Amino acid sequence: MELTDINILLSIVTGVVGIYAGYRKALKEAQDKGESNAVIITMLKHHEELLTKLDTKLEDSVKARNLIKEKIAAHDEKIKTLLRDVEEIKTNCKDCRKKC
Q1: Which residues are within 8 A (CB) of 79 and not within 5 positions of it... i.e. 6 or more apart?
Q2: What integer best gives the mean pLDDT of the chain?
Q3: If you count Cβ atoms within 10 Å of the first and of the last residue's Cβ in the chain, which end, N or C, has fewer?
Q4: How far apart are CA 16 and CA 10, in angstroms?
Q5: Torsion of CA 26, 32, 36, 41, to 10 degrees
Q6: Comparing 64 with 27, which gets the higher pLDDT?
Q7: Beta carbons within 8 Å of 1's beta carbon, 6+ residues apart
Q8: Which residues make Cβ contacts (< 8 Å) with residue 3, sequence separation at least 6?
Q9: Is the pLDDT of residue 76 over 90?
Q10: For the chain, what is the radius of gyration of the CA atoms?
Q11: Of 46 and 100, which is predicted with more confidence?
C-alpha cells in the first residue's frame, strides 16, 4: 500500500465513522423530540377531552336553563290565573255585600 491508498482507506473509515456518529446524533435528537412530541400530543388529547366535557356541560346547562324557563313560565301562568280568580272573588264579594 502506498501513502495515497492509506489516505483513501483512512478517509473511507473516517467518513463511515462520521456518518455513523451523525446518524446516532440525529437518532438521539429524534428520540428526544419524539418524547417531547409524545408529551405534547398527550397534553393536547387531554385538553381536547376537557373541552369536550366542557361543551357537554354547557349544552346540558343550556337545556336545563330552557327547561327551567318553561317551568317558570308555566308557574307564572298559574299565578296569573290565581290572581285573576282572587280579583273575581273580590269583585263578587263587593257585589254580594251590596246586596246584603
Answers
A1: none
A2: 83
A3: C
A4: 10
A5: 60
A6: 64
A7: 9
A8: none
A9: yes
A10: 42
A11: 46
Q: How many residues does the chain have?
A: 100
Q: How far apart are CA 50 and CA 56, in angstroms?
A: 10
Nearest alpha-carbon partner for 47 in 14, 2, 55, 80 = 55
Could you identify the residue written with the cell 456518529? 21
Tell me, what DSSP letter sits at residue 1? Answer: -
Question: In this structure, which amino acid lies at residue 75?
Answer: H
How many whole angstroms separate alpha carbon 35 and alpha carbon 54? 28
Among all chains, which residue has been given the C-alpha cell 385538553? 47
Mean pLDDT of 23-48: 82
